[in-house]
Design goal:
Elements lengths: L9 E6 L4 E6 L4 E5 L1 H4 L6 H5 L1 H4 L3 E3 L2 E4 L3 E3 L1 H6 L23
Antiparallel strand pairs: 1-2, 2-3, 4-5, 5-6
Length: 103
């Protein structure tokens, strides 16, 4: 896999209780995210909401989270778009590090 220098990606993932994951990013940050609302959206994500074993089979591919069957969630949604953690040790990368579209 080719990495683009300066782009923050997800490097490792560990499933936690319920529908939460601990993600280690390429800059060393650790983000804990509850994905309940994302997988509750239904459609292709319905199996992730209802199947505990499937949810726990999460892995990292090309800098984002992926599940068997080709299910994935955009890394920018996982890293920056969730609720702000109340615990400073679980904070996300600074907003200025978020990828921006060219102008």
């Amino acid at each position: 896999m080719t990495r683009i220098i300066g782009v923050i990606e997800i490097e490792r993932v560990e499933p936690l209780e319920g529908r939460s994951v601990r993600m280690t990013l390429t800059d060393g940050s650790v983000v804990i995210r509850d994905l309940t609302d994302l997988v509750r959206a239904g459609g292709v994500f319905e199996p992730l909401e209802t199947d505990d074993e499937l949810f726990r089979r999460v892995y990292v591919d090309y800098g984002t989270l992926v599940w068997p069957g080709g299910l994935d969630i955009a890394p920018e949604t996982l890293i920056w778009d969730g609720p702000y953690p109340t615990d400073e040790a679980r904070r996300r990368p600074e907003p200025f590090l978020r990828p921006q579209l060219p102008r």
